[in-house]
Amino acid sequence: MSESDLLDAHGAEITVARNQLVDGWHVAMIIVGVTITLPAFLVGASIMSSVGTRTGLAAILTGDLIISLVGMAAMYIAVTRRQSTYQILDASFGPLGSRIISFVIALTLLGWFGVTVAFFAEAVAKAFLELTGIYLPVQLCIVAGCLLMTSTTIYGFRAMDLLSKFTVPLMFVILLGGVVAIASDYSFRDIWFAEPSGAPAAFGEMVSMVVGALMVGVTIVPDLARFIRRPGQVVTASGGGYGIASSLVLVLAGLPVLMTGQVSLIDNMFAVGFGIPALVMMIFASWTTNVSNLYSSCLGLSQAIPAFTGKRLAVVAGTIGGLFALSGIMTHLIGFLVFLGIFIPPVAGIYISQFLVRLPRTVKSVSPVAMLTWGLSAGISFFLARAQMSLTFVPALDSLLLAMLFYALISKATGALLRQRPDAGF
């Protein structure tokens, strides 16, 4: 059965065929493609402008080390079980519970799809204007972007793999070339000892920016990692994608602000004659990111609404994401999605804890232990963040670690109470 047949039959590649397995570096390349985005550029610039080169580099490496370790754990579960995020959730949340969580994550990803396709449309319109002198309406570019990204998503993981092989090296060359051009008038010493140019911030806050920006993606990384050939290759996939490549992207995106004082990497690249390549990079970056967003969203929706499957699922989901963009929701949605950065990581904490502690699969339709853990860990992390307090200086990491701890403790306590009724489960 071909990959597109699997998409037709199950809505979003629920099964993994032997001929679909790939080495870990393939998944690393997809992760890199998702990482090279305008939000990542802004994160890198914010970090460097707040703490300078040396502290900024340390913060980025620390944040990406945390993400790499969490990513390895999530990937290992996916490879050993050959399951997507939403199938993995069944074991800890129960069938109905996992549908609820899947639906929440899917909506979050469609929101990001809308934000990213809006970035895509602006880059296309600006590039077309620079090349031809003709202005294309951004709304038209949004519709074209949705069609392009949805048609790519329909062909699943293999399409993402091929897309990343072509676009990631090109984007890296453009990014590196642009930053080298910007830095050509500065010595290594000038760059290495550059002082902060923006409002000062604590080291922990900068680490939090890195972890928070990537944690939701790590939570759903099993959707990609289940295709990795062998468990040992998760080190290559997570370490290469999150540990090395992500760090390089954030550093390259952040250094120009210390030299020019201009936060926008794209504007900095325009100033040194890299304008069109910069826009091409943004177009490809938005494309690769949104194919991943829509792919995982389709997996979640197919789990949440089993009757709604097939290629039409990708079409409907892409249409919804496009409507988000056309409505201008981007200006209101980002705060909501950052807020969800505290509420989504506990999902990973729960399924990682369930696997590591070897807790039995729940027999409940909705696991009260998992739902209680989710609410407690997310709620505590949210109020700590509101009070400007943190256990680890990283709210997203707080919620993940609390979920791992609470799920293990509550599950063990519940198991002891129900020892006389082993069929009751939890």
TrEMBL record:
InterPro entries for this protein: CodB
Keyword Membrane listed: yes
Molecular function GO labels: cytosine transmembrane transporter activity
Gene3D superfamilies, A to Z: Hydantoin permease (1.10.4160.10)
Residue ranges of the TM segments: 27-51, 57-79, 100-121, 133-155, 162-183, 203-222, 234-258, 270-292, 313-330, 336-357, 369-387, 393-410
Keywords linked to the UniProt accession: Membrane, Transmembrane, Transmembrane helix
GO cellular component assignments: plasma membrane
Presence of the UniProt keyword Lipid biosynthesis in the record: no
Highest taxon above the source species: Bacteria
Name this protein carries in UniProt: Cytosine permease
Organism (species): Emcibacter nanhaiensis
Phylogenetic lineage: Bacteria, Pseudomonadati, Pseudomonadota, Alphaproteobacteria, Emcibacterales
